[in-house]
Write a structure and sequence with these properties.
It contains 6 helices and 16 strands. The protein is of the alpha+beta class and about 290 residues long. The relative contact order is 0.15.
Length: about 290
């Protein structure tokens, strides 16, 4: 029997972080949820059925293979990042127009749309998001959120956050509201005991918000040492640096009079280059890898 990776037969053309050229949409197969309501207008475009679910063929990005699957029991912990206005209007992987203020997300393998409860492991807040895109394509991220979703979850000021994501099947009203760009009520916050258990799964018990939001990779690969960075820009003016950091989810390091916007540190140049490719896909072509001793 051939391995799953050996049967990869489609490579999606990407634009932005998880954005897929609408012309590749022919590679996506459709299924139907029996309980789904009728079609409704997509955000900013033609009809997209709430009940029309696109799973998709296996594909690869930068030599890494991904196999989409209809995993009804999906649940995971990891790091979330978010992307914003720089991709507004781009086609998502299921052909919609990206709305940065909508409550949406990108995931590498789950069907589109599918619905996830996203819980901040720092606060216990939980929101419902709609997956309509592919990404993020770096091992350090579990999910990419829209700016609107990050804002509702309370992480838009931090760039990255440790989260638990769990697939759920919301009712038709909530599906329709999310498809139209709205948001639905927050779920009940997790108890301290539940949060502690999830944080233990990531090795995060006792760690502070500052570490959680700045962590460059998930716990399985977590390193707080290293000399390699992906730098998006360096500014003498703090306002410009803060604006870029807010849009990109990067951090600001200060050196003398300079405010440097960057991801990292990474222990090896290879890891930094992996992050650089993802940063370029997010719409920051001027980013570069630097070594800082």
């Amino acid at each position: 029997m051939r391995s799953p990776v050996s049967i990869l037969i489609a490579t999606l053309a990407l634009a932005g972080c998880g954005m897929v050229d609408g012309r590749s949409d022919a590679h996506l197969r459709e299924t139907r949820l029996a309980s789904a309501p009728a079609k409704i207008p997509a955000i900013g475009g033609g009809p997209v059925g709430i009940g029309r679910v696109k799973i998709g063929q296996p594909y690869s990005v930068d030599g890494v293979g991904y196999i989409p699957a209809d995993d009804r029991g999906y649940e995971a912990v990891g790091y979330a990042s978010w992307y914003g206005d720089e991709l507004e209007g781009n086609r998502t992987a299921n052909g919609e127009r990206f709305d940065p203020d909508g409550i949406s997300a990108a995931h590498r393998t789950l069907p589109m749309p599918s619905y996830l409860e996203v819980t901040s492991l720092d606060t216990g807040r939980t929101i419902l998001v709609r997956v309509n895109d592919r990404g993020p394509f770096t091992r350090s991220r579990l999910i990419d959120l829209s700016k609107g979703a990050a804002r509702q979850l309370g992480i838009s000021g931090h760039g990255h956050a440790a989260v638990r994501i769990r697939r759920v099947e919301p009712d038709g009203d909530e599906r329709e509201k999310l498809a139209r760009g709205g948001k639905v009520r927050e779920r009940e916050r997790l108890s301290s005991a539940e949060l502690a258990e999830l944080r233990d799964r990531m090795g995060l018990r006792g760690r502070t918000r500052a570490v959680l939001t700045a962590e460059p990779v998930p716990a399985a690969y977590a390193r707080l040492k290293g000399h390699w960075y992906v730098q998006l820009g360096s500014f003498t003016g703090e306002a410009r640096a803060r604006s870029l950091a807010s849009r990109s989810g990067a951090r600001i390091d200060h050196k003398g009079m300079l405010h440097r916007v960057r991801f990292g540190p990474f222990e090896t140049e290879r890891e930094a280059n992996d992050s650089l490719r993802a940063t370029h896909r997010k719409g920051y072509p001027e980013a570069r890898v630097i070594r800082d001793d």
